[in-house]
Task: structure prediction
Amino acid sequence: MIVNSARQSAVITEANHHKPSETSSVLHNLPKVELHRHLEGSLRIETLLSIALEYDITLPSVTAETLRPYVQLMPDEPRSMQQFLSKFAILRQFYRSEAIIKRVTREVIADAAADNIRYMELRFTPKALNNIVNRDYKEVINWVCEAAREAASANNIKVGLIVAMNRHESLDIALNAFEAALALREQGIVGVDLAGQEANYPVSLFRSLFERAQAEGLGITIHAGEWAGPESVRSAVEVGATRIGHGIRTIEDPELVQMLVERGIVLEVCPSSNVDSGAVLSLKDHPLEKLYTAGVRTTLNTDDPLISGITLSDEFARVMAQTALTLNDLKRMQILGARAAFLPSSERTALAVQFENWFFPPATQPLKPHDFAQT
Ligand SMILES: [Zn+2]
Result:
């Protein structure tokens, strides 16, 4: 409680004495970076209804509010990976045409921009989008690229796209997506990701693919340390990941914590998602604060805003309410995020400087040294 009061005072001071009830608008107005958001977990419920009507898809329910429990975790539901993943089962039925894939891409980007996200890396799994349309991966990925460019310029947001592959699917499927991603770099693909069942499918199965990504200079982020322990994070770093999706179980291994600090590895932390999937019990139990305090470069992300029923601003508010982290800490995480963007180095530096100037204009307060260390 004492911690929360102190934190609340800090917010009020930083928000020019706004009342606590205005904290959410302060967070909403804050320019933000998001590095870890899945297209497939970010759709609008209203859009699902409209697509269902247009394409004659039978839904378990026909209004936004009654459909919500099928695609979003409700407060009284158990928190488990199985329950979390069950929400994607309905969503997978919707990718029926180029028009739909482009529409949902545009909307996800518009929604992020409306939350004042100024730079977002949006990831998507070509296989998931392609299950029904069944086209060449390059074609499907290019639809996302086209729609993303259009939405980014219409909504004053910079967007990079990450092609995700699943551990539990074959290397051939991953390779197919990877080749298409490489071929479409000029269209907006900035990196690759490995997601899916972490516990039973080691990253080493995909080593050859990440060696090529490194050689080609494609950004590498890997989901690790969520459903498997620190050794999974270590393996992801060994195959070349400079960013780790989640990585929260790093906290179990002090040597690994030190290694991440020394190498400047960035964790894309998604606290609400971790609670919703049962990976951690509650936000109060979440290792984010410990990792950040230990000097690990941590960033805050939503993962799947539809499933968790959140915006990135909501995520910031929850973290501030449940931990001792302050608004300044969250601002520092934004700068760390900008410095970890999968962009050419000059663009990445310009983005980070822009955020530094917004948050800590010269002659306010000094940043911690690690904020400025170059990756
Ligand atoms: Zn994720």
Observations:
- The beta strands are 32-38, 117-124, 158-166, 189-195, 219-224, 243-246, 266-269, 297-300.
- The longest strand covers residues 158-166.
- Residues 4 and 321 are 7 Å apart (CA to CA).
- Residues 36, 38, 195, 223, 245, 303 surround zinc ion (CB under 6 Å).
